[in-house]
Amino acid sequence: MQQTSTPTSDLAGRCEHRGWSRGFTLIEVVLALSVLGIVLTALGSVLTLSLRALPNRGDASEQPLIVARVLEQMSDDIQSAKRITGTSTTLTLSIPDRDADSEDESVEYSWSGSRGDPFLRRENGGTWITLIDSLSKAAFNVERFASQLDGSTALVDGSEQILSAWETGATASYSLGTTMWAAQTVMPVLPADAVAWKPTRIEINVRSVTPIDGVVVVDIRVPNADGTPSATSLLTASVNESAMTSSFAWYTVSLSGMSSLSPTSGISVVFRTNGSGVVAGRMQGLTTGVASPGMMATSANGGALWSPFSDGAIYHRLWGIVTRPTTATSAVDRARSVTIALTPMNSRAFSTRVYTVGNPEAQ
């Protein structure tokens, strides 16, 4: 059998060919780098264009968004405000407590008024925060209207006024002596909201009686249930007969020192002597026909027993004051709305009108 042999040199050549790996040529490397450079350059251009297309705070295209956010924030603050203080370029708001410290918050908006300056905001006197980098113009207008503000209620004494009077049509006169007394019971008609009243003075119509040696005593007493004077005296004052004339005339007797009385309480004014002299003076009166919330009475035994006349009256003018609750009111301005106009640099003006909630005070 014939064997075919392979030359050793051929085997070596084949083995050498199988172990060799072919690399990139210089031309291929250069071409690859050129293509990569072109791709990177294109990507860089796209990225640059994209970044330029994104708006920033200084771009006019971003201004509407920035201003819209600012106006929205201002609207929220204004609608929460309890008090608004404003000028053409500043706005200060008092807002109910937001941080649970039991104190109102102070929010301020401000523009200097100089073109190009920023629009600022701060809370509670803190650091100013820039809301808009630069403004060409800013203007605020607070629409105000007058309102009455109720204050605290207090009890106030009114002006002195006549609370009871009768001075015409006398049909009888009474000489005041040791035993002869006269009395006028008064139940003043007061306003429905009166809480108290107090007599301050009384004018009496008297004349002297010879011999002029007595004293007329004006004795303010608590009335009995039937309207006659009781024995309980609240205050006394007097007029000397020597100060009177022989003709009937009006004399004023001060009742200073009287305490305030309930609006449902009346008084009995007793006219008597102090015990000296037989007759101390003479008074006029009418036993019937007097339509008034009071009555007269006479006593012939020094006040031990009284004879009442329900529609009678002794000449008198009783002055006094009435105490009533009074609520102090004061006129204040309130805000109905706030108009805001902001004009960024190189942009149109943006404006809005914010209607307030509850019409807060405006200063």
Domain module tally: 2
Helix content: 10-25%
Q: In angstroms, what is the radius of gyration?
A: 52 Å
- General form: rod-shaped
What is the SS-derived class? alpha+beta
**Second-tier CATH architecture of the largest domain:** Sandwich
Fold-level CATH name of the largest domain: Jelly Rolls
Q: Tally the helices: what do you get?
A: 3
Distance between the termini: 128 Å
Order of helices and strands: HHHEEEEEEEEEEEEEEEEEEEEE
DSSP strand (E) fraction? over 45%
Count the E strands. 21
Largest sheet: 9 strands, antiparallel
Note poorly predicted spans.
1-9, 15-20
CATH top-level class of the largest domain? Mainly Beta
Can you give a write-up of this model?
The protein has 363 residues and is an alpha+beta fold. It folds into 2 domains: 63-150 and 331-362, no CATH class; 168-314, Sandwich (Jelly Rolls). The protein contains 3 helices and 21 strands. The protein has helices at residues 8-18, 26-53, 63-80; strands spanning 83-86, 90-95, 105-111, 119-123, 129-132, 135-157, 161-166, 172-177, 181-186, 196-207, 215-223, 229-240, 249-254, 267-273, 279-286, 294-299, 307-309, 313-314, 316-344, 350-355, 361-362. Strands 6, 7, 8, 10, 13, 15, 18, 19 and 20 form a 9-stranded antiparallel β-sheet that branches. It is rod-shaped. The model is unreliable at 1-9 and 15-20 (pLDDT under 50).
